[in-house]
Fold this sequence. Notes:
Elements: H1 2-20, H2 23-30, E1 32-37, E2 40-41, E3 45-47, E4 53-54, H3 56-72, E5 78-83, H4 89-94, E6 100-101, E7 115-131, E8 146-150, H5 154-165, E9 171-175, H6 178-187, E10 192-196, H7 197-206, E11 213-216, E12 222-230, H8 234-250, H9 252-261, H10 278-285
Parallel strand pairs: 1-5, 1-6, 8-9, 8-10
Antiparallel strand pairs: 2-3, 3-4, 6-12, 7-10, 7-11, 7-12
Helix pairs in contact: 3-8
InterPro entries: Bact_solute-bind_prot3 (IPR051455), Solute-binding_3/MltF_N (IPR001638)
Domain Solute-binding protein family 3/N-terminal: 32-264
Keywords: Signal, Transport
Amino acid sequence: MAALAAALVAGMACTAYADETATLKRIAATSTIRIGQRVSSVPFSYHADRRRVVGYSQDIMLNIVAAVQNELKLQSLTIALAPITSQNWIPLLINGTIDIECSSTSHTVDREQKVAFSNTIFVIGTRILSHKDAGIKDFGDLAGRRVVITAGTTAERSLHRFNEEHSAGMVITAAKEHDVAFQQLEAGTVAAFVMDDALLYGERAKAREPDDWIVTGTPLALEAYACTMRRDDAPFKALVDRAIATLMASGEARTLYDKWFTQPIPPKGMNLNWPISNRLVELFNAPNDRPIE
C-alpha cells in the first residue's frame, strides 16, 4: 500500500509539473527544442536535399535557437525537427509536439485566438502566377478558369471570397503543398496558381523555364509572416521577439533578405531576383508583432 501511495503521489507530482512547466523550462530540462518545419516554402523553409532544411525563415529560426541556448546557458541544445503543413501546424503547437514554427505563416486576428505570433519577419501580397502567354494580368482575368491554391492558407480564403463577391465562376482546386500546386500549373491542368507573392517567386525560380512564368495581379491582400508559438507563454515569446528585433537592428535581417531573394540559392543556384520592398524596409526599421488587416 505504501508503495502504491508513493507511486500515486509521484504520478500526481509529474502531472502538476507538466501542467505548470512553460516552454523555456521544458527546453532547459531536456536540452531540446522542437521545431516545426515547412519543406516546400521556397525560399523560406524548404528541403535543399532530402535531409537539409534551409531558407530565410530557417536562418531566422537558427538565430532564435542560439538566443534560447544563450538565455538558458546550455552547453548544447538539440533541435528536433517535425515536418508541418498548412493544415496541421496549429494542432501540433497546441498539443506540444512542437514548441515553435518559423516558415511562411500569415499572422491573422483569427489565428491569435489559437496561437501566439512573434514579431513579423516578412510582408507579402496574395497574387497570381501564370504563363506569360495566358493573357492573365489581374484577378478579373481568372473568371471562368481553373485555379489552384494551397490548402489551408489565408490565400485560399481570400480567393474564395473574391470568387463569390465578383461571381467570377472560377473553378478553385486545392493542393497540399506549394510545389504540388505549381506542378499542376506547369502541366497545364490549371490556368493560374494563386498564393503569397514571395512563394510564387520561389516556385517560378524552380521552373524548367522560369522566364515562361509571370507573377502578376493587384494583391488581394497584404499579410505579415511571423513565427508561431503556444499562447500564454510570455517569457518565451519575449525571447523570440528580442532575437528577431536584434536581427533587424543589426542589419543581419537585410543581409538574410539579400542572401535568399537576390542571390543564387540551393539546390540549383536559382535566383528569385526580387528587390526588397519599402514595406519590408519599414519593418526592419521598426519591428512589431501586429498583423496586417
